[in-house]
Amino acid sequence: MQYKTIKNTAIYSSRLIYGCMRICGDNSIEDKNKGKRAIHSAIEVGYNHFDHADIYGAGQSETLFGEVLKASPKLREEMFITSKAGIRPKSSEMDYAPTRYDFSKQYILESVEGSLKRLGIEQLDMFLLHRPDYLMNVHEVADVFDVLQTSGKVKHFGVSNFKPSQAALLRSAMSMPLVVNQVEINIHNIDTLLNGTLDQCQQHDITPIAWCPLGGVAYPAWGNTFTGIDEKRIETELALQAIKYQCEPWLVILAWILKHPADIFPIIGSTTPARIIAAKHALELQYSREDWYRLLEARNGVSVP
Ligand SMILES: NC(=O)c1ccc[n+]([C@@H]2O[C@H](COP(=O)([O-])OP(=O)(O)OC[C@H]3O[C@@H](n4cnc5c(N)ncnc54)[C@H](OP(=O)(O)O)[C@@H]3O)[C@@H](O)[C@H]2O)c1
C-alpha cells in the first residue's frame, strides 16, 4: 500500500480508501459476516482510511463497522474514519416530507451524533456534506463546522458532489480549510476533468476522492449513456493495456484515475477480499501518458482535437 497526506490535515491516508457502502449487502447475517471479512482484509493489506455515510445501509453499515471496532478497539488508533450526512431520507412511505437535502444546523449536529454513536467512536477524522443542499446557508454550515470542531467531534471538513462554484461559496464562509471533495470519477463520468473540479482541487489544496471508480467497467455507471459499441471499444482498449501492464483490466482504470496530477484517492467498494487486496497493484503500474490518452480516446470514440 502507498500512503499520502491529505493536504491541510495530519491524515496520512492510504492511497486507496476502503468504502463501506456495500458492507451490509442485503443485511443478512451471511452478507454482514462477508462485510466484516472485507473490512479485515482491507486492514490487513494496509487500507487505513474508511469511508462511511449515515445513510449506507440506513445506518447499518456504520453499526457493523462499530462492531468490528468494539471487538478490536486498538484498530481505531491506526485508522482514519470519514463519514457523510446531509441527505435526509423520507422516514416512511407515510412521511409527507420527501427525501431531501438538509444542511440545517440541527440536522447536521444530530447526524454527526448518530454516526459517532453507531461507530462507537468519539471523533470523526473527516465529515463531508454528502450532496449539495440547494437551500444551503453557508454561514449556518460554517457555524456548525465550528461547533463540531470546537467540541472535538470532527477534526476536518469536506464536501461531496459539489460543483466548483458551490465549493468556492462554502470555502468563502469557512474558518478552516475545506479539505476534500468526494466526487464520482470513472471511465463513464469524467465531469470533474471538464467542469473545473480537479483544477479547483489543485489550486486550493483540496484532495479529490473518487467514488465508484469502476463504474462503466465492472458494472454500468450511474445514468449510463454508453452504447454497446462504446463498451466494446473501451473493453478492447482495456484488454490491450491489461496485457501490456500484465494486470486485470479493472486495475488499468484505477491507474488511469491515479495518473491525474490532482492526486485523486480512489475509494474501493468491493466486498471480495481478493479484489480488495489486488487493487493495490494499480499503485505500482508505471502508467503512461500515451495510454491515458488512448483510453480517453476509446471512451470518447474520437481523438482529441
Ligand atoms: N459520495 C457519494 O455520493 C458516493 C456515492 C457512491 C459511493 N460512494 C463511496 O464510494 C465507495 C466506492 O463505491 P463503489 O462501491 O461503487 O466502488 P467500486 O469499487 O467502483 O465498485 C464496487 C462494486 O464493483 C464490483 N466489482 C469490483 N471489481 C469488480 C470486477 N473486477 N468485476 C466485477 N465486479 C467488480 C464489486 O463487487 P464485489 O463486492 O462482489 O467484489 C462491488 O459491487 C462506496 O463504498 C462509498 O464509500 C460515495
Automatic annotation (TrEMBL):
Ranges where the NADP-dependent oxidoreductase domain occurs: 15-296
Database matches in SUPFAM superfamilies: NAD(P)-linked oxidoreductase
CDD domains membership: AKR_BsYcsN_EcYdhF-like (cd19092)
Protein name according to UniProt: Predicted oxidoreductase
Cellular component GO terms, alphabetical: cytosol
Domain of life: Bacteria
Organism: Pseudoalteromonas denitrificans DSM 6059
